[in-house]
Automatic annotation (TrEMBL):
<dbReference type="InterPro" id="IPR033948">
    <property type="entry name" value="ETF_beta_N"/>
</dbReference>
<dbReference type="InterPro" id="IPR000049">
    <property type="entry name" value="ET-Flavoprotein_bsu_CS"/>
</dbReference>
<comment type="subunit">
    <text>Heterodimer of an alpha and a beta subunit.</text>
</comment>
<protein>
    <recommendedName>
        <fullName>Probable electron transfer flavoprotein subunit beta</fullName>
    </recommendedName>
</protein>
<comment type="similarity">
    <text>Belongs to the ETF beta-subunit/FixA family.</text>
</comment>
<keyword id="KW-0249">Electron transport</keyword>
<keyword id="KW-0813">Transport</keyword>
<dbReference type="InterPro" id="IPR014729">
    <property type="entry name" value="Rossmann-like_a/b/a_fold"/>
</dbReference>
<comment type="function">
    <text>The electron transfer flavoprotein serves as a specific electron acceptor for several dehydrogenases, including five acyl-CoA dehydrogenases, glutaryl-CoA and sarcosine dehydrogenase. It transfers the electrons to the main mitochondrial respiratory chain via ETF-ubiquinone oxidoreductase (ETF dehydrogenase).</text>
</comment>
<dbReference type="GO" id="GO:0009055">
    <property type="term" value="F:electron transfer activity"/>
</dbReference>
<dbReference type="InterPro" id="IPR014730">
    <property type="entry name" value="ETF_a/b_N"/>
</dbReference>
<feature type="domain" description="Electron transfer flavoprotein alpha/beta-subunit N-terminal">
    <location>
        <begin position="30"/>
        <end position="227"/>
    </location>
</feature>
<dbReference type="Pfam" id="PF01012">
    <property type="entry name" value="ETF"/>
</dbReference>
<dbReference type="GO" id="GO:0009063">
    <property type="term" value="P:amino acid catabolic process"/>
</dbReference>
<dbReference type="GO" id="GO:0005759">
    <property type="term" value="C:mitochondrial matrix"/>
</dbReference>
<dbReference type="InterPro" id="IPR012255">
    <property type="entry name" value="ETF_b"/>
</dbReference>
<keyword id="KW-0496">Mitochondrion</keyword>
Amino acid sequence: MRPSAVRLLNILVPIKRTVDYAVKIRVNPDQKGIDLNVKHSMNPFDEIAVEEAVRLRERLKDAVKSIKVVTIGPPKSAETLRTALAMGADSGIHVELPESAPAPEPLGVAKALRALIQRQKEGIDLVIMGKQAIDDDAGQTGQMLAGLMDWPQATFASKVAIDVEKKEASVTREIDGGLEELRCRLPLVVTTDLRLNEPRYASLPNIMKAKKKPIEKLTPADLEVDLTPRIETLKVTEPPKRQGGGKVANVDELIAKLKEAGITAVSS
């Protein structure tokens, strides 16, 4: 039996509504960003984070007390929260922004998450989030949050194991040379990599149950954070179209073509 003195785990999973990964990106007419009038879905790395939180509860049984998901975005972001709730999260928090508001930057998001964690009366033991969002590919929020909270961090996780009694986590992460295993004390920030798991599809009964799960609505003012971007986007353009190639009959013709293009061979 688990000793009664061991505190149950509370898990927080930040998620983001992004343009669906299968959509072909197009620049909008004013060239200030991309066309957002397309299909959106949960950021794939965040979906992996939600799945891992649910799997941890399945592995640890009743040692996980709650899984809470949070998103920062316009009103439509509530749909993304409902998807996470249908996957198995218990409740959600929506820091709602106006529809026309620019997307917050990683530092602003990290500060908002810090404020949210500090508001939780029962405390947060583990934050699991995607290693990056596929819209800006910044890959900074998890590291910034760990720095602001002065918590350990384990990024690019491909395996996560929790020892509830010792309040420790063993995280296998992917590095250039292979795999690295970290042992960290809780509370902890973990960012997920693609190979951590394969997210489940929400069943129809769970989708119906998700409609009754609570979602708390907040504003940046409630958290006393300023999400105004510090970087201004001046112009967004599509990359130049690739030119078609040509065929050559032999090596001599290839060398002649390269010389015409101003490319000279470098001897090793």
